[in-house]
Specification:
By secondary structure, the protein is of the alpha+beta class. The chain is 64% helix and 12% strand. Strand 2 and strand 3 form a beta hairpin. The longest helix is centred in the first third of the chain and has 32 residues.
Length: 289
């Protein structure tokens, strides 16, 4: 029963992420990208870049690309991806119609439009990807490549969007390209930050090398109620075999963990890294990418 409740809550959470993310993306496109002809990434950016050559309506081109990429994505990323992406794709025109009636286009410089368009678009795409879906646009190719190679999605978005912006050079010139790169970098950064959020938690992954590893491991489990993993290691210089204690703790527990280690073995060697993607008992981090 508890597992079923958890599954339902996760589905509701993902639906909300898709709705909010799609809305942010629509605001980005309708308020900043299209009105200012920003050479951003995504299907909107491609539509802007191709307009001088095709002389077709930008919305028509963007919708055509979205449908084509949706079909490709379903072939590589599965049925669930297709269903959730269709949901986002159906929301997109609905939000667009609403926003076209209520949005007031700000009178700002293209540089600001590029920055805020990229920021809102990146947040929107990041939220949708966290839900295991896609907006059906140019985030489909990065997701496919990520699945095949394991390269970070935000890095792939940066590369593909950068190539999209370069495409606009032939129709708009170097100044428009440079302005477009602002949107691309901000979008990639925003996606990376959204995908790195661990449901509001901050954690530390700690490796402890000590001759007194048994006492340290025992105290961590009894005083912090955190599990530990013991790994075998061998000193490169001494050749001595010893245990490495691995533990993941919340940010607020980190100080207590260090205090335990210093009390049990002041000469212990401690390696600490930020951890933003944990799954399983004791942690509730969600979508992995």
């Amino acid at each position: 029963m508890a597992l079923k409740k958890t599954t339902v809550l996760k589905k509701v959470r993902n639906i909300l992420l898709i709705i909010i993310g799609t809305f942010f993306l629509c605001v980005s496109v309708q308020m900043f990208i299209l009105p200012f002809n920003i050479l951003s990434g995504g299907v909107a950016g491609i539509a802007v870049a191709l307009e001088p050559f095709l002389h077709l309506d930008k919305t028509l081109v963007a919708n055509g690309l979205t449908i084509g990429l949706l079909i490709i994505g379903s072939l590589f990323l599965g049925k669930e991806f297709f269903v959730t992406t269709v949901f986002s794709s159906l929301l997109y025109p609905v939000f667009n119609e609403i926003l076209l009636k209520i949005l007031i286009i700000p009178q700002i410089e293209p540089l600001l439009a590029s920055f805020y368009g990229g920021l809102l678009g990146g947040i929107g795409v990041g939220l949708v990807i966290r839900a295991g879906a896609s907006t059906g646009g140019m985030d489909v190719p990065p997701l496919i490549i990520h699945k095949l190679t394991g390269v970070k999605v935000s890095t792939l978005v940066l590369i593909i969007d950068g190539l999209t912006v370069l495409l606009g050079y032939f129709g708009y010139g170097i100044e428009a390209v440079l302005i477009g790169f602002i949107s691309v970098f901000v979008t990639s950064y925003a996606i990376n930050r959204v995908l790195s959020i661990g449901d509001g938690q901050v954690a530390k992954s700690v490796q402890i090398i000590s001759d007194n590893w048994e006492k340290i491991a025992s105290d961590i489990q009894s005083e912090l109620n955190r599990g530990v993993t013991l790994m075998d290691a061998q000193g490169g210089y001494s050749g001595k075999h010893r245990k490495v204690v691995l533990c993941v703790v919340g940010h607020k527990e980190y100080g207590s963990l260090i205090e335990i280690v210093e009390n049990d073995d002041p000469s212990a060697f401690v390696i600490t890294t930020d951890a933003t993607d944990m799954h399983g008992e004791g942690f509730t981090y969600g979508f992995r990418i």
